[in-house]
Design a protein that fits this description.
With 528 residues, the protein is an alpha/beta fold. It is 41% helix and 13% strand. Helix 3 packs across helix 5 (116-128), helix 7 (173-180) packs parallel to helix 9 (230-238) and helix 15 (383-400) runs antiparallel to helix 18. The structure holds flavin-adenine dinucleotide. Catalyzes the oxidation of sulfhydryl groups in peptide and protein thiols to disulfides with the reduction of oxygen to hydrogen peroxide.
Length: 528
């Protein structure tokens, strides 16, 4: 039973269904459902679970149209429901159309091929099997567009973009891109067939698949992506200026939607380059951390003091900052190491940082100024964004300068930065839930990190895991939707498609991260 509960967990992008929830979930639902009835003792089901999990992650953005579920028939509380649904073999794949009736037992997929791409195409077919009457409410049209409708867009201004994917008859790319963009507003995606001469000739499209974009201002042109693949088309479209993720949380939080007050914030908008890191963000983050977050602790002792000392060690030795800031951190470190105290009142640290050092010209900004971490409203982005950025910088610096931590308590430890971050996050980071999640990830795999290079990749991988979990959450800034990063515009060579599934080229990611998070890529713009 321990294992039964473990094959799929709450954090997986699948809906975990049971005897008490299956019927009410799949019947009369506004979306279609594809449910895997499995058994936790069936070896094949166990081996298959990574594929199912990967599939669910891959089609997470389709969930307003079709959703993925699992139900464990080996769980005692599910015995009855599996009997009622006549599940004889594991795994059984059942799909339910949207608005399924109350006595619906679903249709079984009997194909022998259960590879991710095949099942994903099955999902598209399931959607297209709906009629006009029972079409899932939020699913856009998936059939080819009429050439007249498309050509009428030429030269016309519009409220939003229209993207057109032109493809061969047996291709699924167009429909997959349409579904990938379901949770985004500001854009409509349509598809057309390469056999539609009216379109291909007028738009001068000679190879398929190809993408074409009609801009709101009436201009139009071919969409230039490094590879003509689903992932590249979808990523490009999601990043168009003005295209935003819809708020999916059931209750709209007024703080988190753009409202009048936010326009003021937008007025002070600072232009920035997404391919750069900004010193202003890093210094603002350090200021907030030292003077606000830590300052809520009266005294530091025991574990807290260790966590703080390690943190100061790592930043003093590795942070590629401006001279007065680095000096300030070094002086703080010297002071901490020279004091063999078990317990330090935080006011003493504040006094040192704010007053004593200032006299000698060592100075850290005393206000926040977010640049690439600025949010579309006051409550979004900012500090947590700067903290991720700081730790990516530190892992990259450690890989570049392996001797930087020599003669410190952290010397020769490939996990030095990661373990320091872990201690900081669990001990001090104000978002406690975040800390719990991070600790769970750290416990699972941080100890397997064996080199400074692996540490860079570990943090990148985990950050993407967090991005994936938070996509569409309330804390997501609609202007900066959570994506798997680096996006193909930042690093085209980091991405590849294998058997229709996006894969990372990790050696390229490694090279990219070290360059992106290098001292040379930190812009001094806006740092006062
Ligand atoms: P961030 O995710 O903060 O990223 C900042 C910048 O880093 C991005 O703009 C991008 O340039 C770059 N970047 C993005 N992904 C990667 C990557 N994979 N590798 C390298 N660089 C990357 N919020 C919650 O609501 N729930 C949580 O459980 C949660 N856990 C957190 C745990 C930690 C350790 C931290 C530091 C933050 C956590 N947060 C959590 C906050 C959340 O992750 C974001 O920081 C916050 O929502 C702001 O998001 P953002 O859009 O500014 O981008």
């Amino acid at each position: 039973p321990g294992r039964a509960a473990r094959l799929y967990v709450e954090d997986d992008p699948v809906a975990i269904l049971g005897g008490d929830t299956l019927k009410q979930t799949v019947r009369n639902s506004s979306t279609a459902w594809l449910v895997q009835f499995y058994s936790s003792w069936c070896g094949h089901c166990i081996q298959y679970s990574p594929t199912w999990r990967a599939l669910a992650g891959d089609v997470k953005d389709w969930e307003l149209a079709i959703r993925i579920g699992v139900l464990d028939c080996a769980h005692e509380r599910n015995f009855d429901i599996c009997k009622e649904f006549e599940i004889h073999f594991y795994p059984t794949f059942r799909y339910f159309k949207a608005h399924a009736s109350v006595d619906e037992l679903g249709k079984t997929y009997r194909g022998a091929n259960r590879e991710l791409q095949t099942v994903r195409q099955l999902m598209v077919n399931i959607l297209q099997n709906h009629t006009r009457q029972d079409w899932p409410v939020h699913c856009p049209p998936l059939g080819p567009a009429r050439s007249d409708d498309i050509l009428a867009l030429m030269g016309k201004t519009a409220e939003q973009y229209t993207a057109l994917i032109v493809e061969d008859e047996d291709s699924y790319v167009g429909r997959e891109v349409i579904l990938d963009l379901v949770p985004y507003r500001g854009l409509t995606v349509r598809r057309a067939l390469s056999s539609d001469k009216a379109i291909t000739e007028k738009l001068r499209i000679s190879t398929a698949p190809a993408a074409y974009l009609f801009y709101p201002n009436g201009s139009h042109g071919a969409l230039d992506v490094p590879k003509r693949q689903r992932f590249f088309f979808s990523s490009f479209l999601k990043l168009l200026p003005g295209v935003r993720r819809k708020q999916t949380a059931s209750v709209q939080d007024p703080v988190h939607t753009l409202n009048k007050g936010d326009e003021a914030t937008m007025k002070d908008w600072k232009e920035f380059d997404r391919s750069k890191v900004y010193m202003a963000d890093l210094e603002s983050g350090l200021h907030y951390l030292l003077r606000v977050e830590l300052a809520s602790h009266h005294t530091l002792e025991g574990e807290e003091l260790v966590a703080f000392k390690d943190f100061v060690t790592v930043v003093a030795k590795l942070f590629p900052g401006r001279q007065p800031v680095v000096k300030l951190l070094e002086t703080l470190l010297e002071w901490l190491t020279s004091l063999p105290l078990e317990k330090i009142p935080y006011d003493a640290i504040l006094d040192l940082v704010n007053n004593k050092m200032r006299i000698s010209g060592l100075y850290l900004t005393d206000h926040v100024q977010w640049v690439s971490c600025q949010g579309s409203s006051m409550t979004l982005r900012g500090y947590p964004c700067s903290l991720w950025t700081l730790f990516h910088i530190l892992t990259a610096q450690a890989a570049q300068r392996p001797d930087a931590l020599a003669n410190t308590a952290l010397e020769d430890d490939p996990q030095a930065v990661l373990q320091t971050m872990r201690r900081y996050i669990t001990t001090f980071f104000g978002c406690q839930e975040c800390g719990k999640h991070f600790e769970a990830m750290a416990k699972e795999s941080m100890n397997s990190v064996k080199s400074l290079d692996e540490a860079v990749l570990w943090l990148w991988r985990k950050h993407n895991q967090v991005n994936s979990r938070l996509a569409g959450a309330m804390s997501e800034d609609p202007v900066f939707p959570k994506t798997q990063w680096p996006t193909p515009d930042l690093c085209p060579t980091c991405h590849e498609e294998q058997n229709g599934l996006h894969v990372w080229k990790e050696d390229m990611v490694q090279v990219f991260l070290k360059k992106h998070y290098s001292a040379a890529n930190i812009s001094p713009k806006y740092s006062s």
